[in-house]
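Section: Multi-chain targets

For targets with more than one molecule, the full set of components is provided together so that the structure can be written out for the assembly as a whole rather than chain by chain. Components appear in the order listed by the source. The example entry contains two components.
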Amino acid sequence: MKRGQRKGGSRRTGRRSGSQPRLLPLGGGKGGVGKSFLVANLAVSMARSGHRVVAVDCDLEGANLHTLLGLRRPLHSFAEYVAGRETDVRKLAEPTPVENLRLIAGTGVDLGSAQPEQNQRLDFLDSLRGMDADFVLLDLGAGSSASVLDYFMVSDDGLVVIAPEPTAVENAYTFMRAAFYRRLRLAMVEPEVRRLVSVAMDQRNESGIRSPYELLREVERLDPAEGVHFASVMRAFRPRLVVNGVRGTEDIRLGFSIKTLCSKYYAIEPEYLGYVSYDEQVREAVRACRPVVDIAPDSSAAVYIERIARKLAEGPGEEVP
Amino acid sequence: MKPLEEQDHYELLEISPQASAEEIEGAYQMARSIYADESMAGRSVFEAGDAALIRDRVEVAYCALIDRETRRAYDAELGGVVPEHVEPTSETESGALPPESLEDFDPLDASQGEFDGTRLRRLRMHRGIELERVAEVTKVNPTYLRFIEEERFDDLPAAVYVRGFVLGYAGCVGLDPRRVAKSYMSRYEESRNSSKRRLFGRR
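Its structure, encoded as tokens over all components, is:
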């Protein structure tokens, strides 16, 4: 399915009969940068403009997407699926106070082992593609472990949320690079090539491979056919950056700088999707357990969020801001 | 998409070859902030010293592109994939006549001959230009400039950097940057290749 083909008609009605929903993961490595906040508000914003949206809390160890959407005690949860009590993913989605928006919460986990096994994760993601919806937004937990990255892997252009702080920036790079290498390794068929990618993932590896470009050269040498494939997987990976909580032009430029450095150093070509300004009304909205786009639609944060929501709904467009 | 080392001035600054002076200026300011040591986006990316290297390259790129003359020369060079044989060499029939004999060759006449480190140094001193001044103008680390004059090829960084340094050096001393770079870089490459052969004997 080509994203570009979807403009026009479907936007007004929000119906795209017969096609799968588009899965949009939001990650970023660092905790507290506003991933859940953005998922909640983007989902509301998209639902309000007529799209059928499902928001999924994949952060089973720190679920709070439901709270941001004003649900105190969700009826169902991803955790039921993990525990094997419910196998039909469609039944996990419950209505929210917002029309067109449903939620799959992440509450009520087995505190002994919250995380699903990998094959369970992949089955879950697969089932999400069968949901009757236009967009499925995935709220990821912090960190760059395989259990988080698998959710990010559902598309080539997941969103990476960054706060304008050195720590958040650092973790965002780690997150994107981990996702990039994981994507490359999973895409390779030849065991030897896979092994090579694994070696290169260790930054202090003894083979001397220090960048994806060098890795590409090695893959080409080892197996020319895989080399071609490798290069195309490399190009297809285009995460989309969102800088959350900007307080000035310096912070806005941060997105451009990260984009440049990703390309120069890591062979990753992100798109700078947008930024959301720092806003006292965001804090108030979070305290009130309400989306800021609902209680303060004229606030600058809400305006920027809606701009991003429009871009997401319309597919690829021109770059910010 | 290209490794950083292989990017030309335009790619480095992320502008098109048709960029206006204003765009070049803007891209240059942006690059300066990205590669500043205290850059928030860069601090976890840069390894020791490599931001300084890129800053040097950004300076060289900016100097080459912001001046109409040097930009034209650079474009010609880029667009050319200028084959070796186009440039008249001293052995061929075309172009400038080779010096009659070795005695007639004036090392301080910069319009002819090969440019090695010693000759560059002599030309520079003959023109009364201090190395520090070259460093100031080109923003290239003076240690590298000294290595260039001393032909300490193994201590110099990758070709693309050195080439940028030499272009800047030549321009600053008032020599033809392209000719000097071409001549100097062939010496650099030759030495690099032979040291590689030493390292990997079998190849």
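Residues 177-199 of chain B form the longest helix (23 residues).
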